[in-house]
Specification:
It is built from 18 helices and no strands. The protein has 388 residues and is mainly α.
């Protein structure tokens, strides 16, 4: 209950994205509550940034696991995730209920601000994840591959190419050794969780192809999106867009409006899955669809972080693994850059006024350092005025 309540407070107040979330967590759990020391916390953050999935949510799950075992991990996830998920489901039901809302100026403003948010993500990630010529080259090749093959296959291929290129062509220093804190997960349990992660990743697409049921196909796609997101929550955008928009389950306008709205709420960006589940047509929709896909997209993150904790110190010292991960992180910058053009830019920018609004929002985010929530509200208001 202690874990649930403290993470619920954070889930209601943690604006600003995963980097800000990690700062909030450090203040709360290292400085204020002393659940762990600074070195252990830094080591945990390094692990979660190394793994695929939403880094801040994985840090939260591990903190809950270390504090109160498996119930603590669940409590941390529920508290941090549900506030934004509930808001986005309510927003999705509003878009579904009132057809005119989807064509309103407010929704158009949300689509335009998505351009600024994704551009900011590409800008920031390129600085940290592509600091040299080799990784910049990997990012450009990945972007070209995704633009040439605008499907899930193209995105996954870009990530694989990044891993191979990183493994064989990048030169990196090694991580400094650090004392690893125990989280109560044995190597046997960790290996089992990693095995389950891998089996679900391999078998769900096979099952979807065999049974040809829309529900199984959607679950498989959302699990893959949660399992293949490297470098930050924004990378989930192109993976989910090819799933729900290309298959006609969600209109592109509704997709981008929900992505813009997701910037205005606290907590993890992965709760965008709850919006998509609630707004889509088909077997999964409404409240139940939103909650179901919310769980599905977070399952691989939990399996990965809990499974990797017992092996982290060995894993992080392997040069080949480090180089592959650096290549993957460079590739996802390219994947997100391709998504910035299509669908984000092509669907939102139709006039000089749209471009001006996107440029102003980008300036406020990057140089004005305003809260994304405030920029989203401003953009929605300007979008409303432009349509009147």
């Amino acid at each position: 209950m202690e874990v649930l309540l403290v993470f619920l407070k954070l889930g209601l107040t943690s604006f600003g994205g995963p980097v800000a979330h990690i700062g909030y967590f450090r203040t709360e759990f290292v400085e204020r509550r002393a659940w762990l020391d600074d070195k252990s916390y830094s080591d945990l953050v390094a692990l979660c940034q190394f793994l695929p999935g939403p880094a801040s949510s994985q840090v939260g799950m591990a903190l809950g696991l270390g504090r109160a075992g498996w119930p603590g991990a669940l409590g941390a996830w529920l508290g941090f995730t549900l506030p934004s998920a509930v808001f986005l489901i309510v927003f999705a039901l509003g878009v579904t209920q009132w057809a005119g809302l989807a064509q309103s100026g407010v929704i158009h403003g949300l689509k335009v601000v998505a351009v600024a948010v994704v551009a900011q993500a590409v800008w920031g990630m390129s600085v940290t994840l592509c600091p040299d010529r080799s990784r910049a080259c990997i990012a450009i090749i990945a972007a070209l591959l995704v633009l040439a093959v605008p499907t899930t296959l193209g995105q996954v291929s870009a990530i694989v190419v990044g891993a191979i290129a990183g493994r064989w062509f990048l030169q990196l220093g090694s991580f400094p050794s650090a004392e690893h804190r125990s989280y109560g997960v044995s190597k046997r349990v960790g290996a089992l969780l990693l095995l389950v992660f891998g089996l679900l990743l391999l078998l769900l697409p096979v099952l979807a192809a065999i049974v040809r049921q829309p529900t199984v196909s959607i679950i498989s796609s959302f699990y893959q999106a949660g399992a293949l997101v490297f470098g930050g929550g924004h990378v989930v955008l192109p993976l989910l867009q090819t799933t729900v928009v290309s298959d006609g389950l969600v209109t592109n306008d509704a997709f981008l409006a929900g992505y813009g709205a997701a910037q205005a709420v606290p907590g993890p960006l992965f709760t965008f899955a709850a919006y998509l589940g609630a707004v889509m047509t088909g077997p999964l929709k409404g409240w139940w669809g939103g909650l179901a896909l919310l769980v599905v997209i977070f399952v691989p993150a939990f399996l990965m972080v809990a499974g990797a904790l017992p092996f982290w110190e060995t894993l992080r010292q392997r040069p080949g693994v480090q180089r592959s991960m650096a290549g993957i992180n460079a590739a996802v910058v390219g994947v997100l850059a391709a998504a910035l053009y299509d669908p984000v830019w092509t669907s939102a920018i139709h006039s000089r006024a749209d471009f001006g609004l996107a440029l102003a929002a980008f300036g406020l985010l990057v140089y004005g350092r305003l809260s994304p929530a405030l920029v989203v509200v401003l953009a929605a208001g300007v979008g409303w005025m432009l349509m009147h």
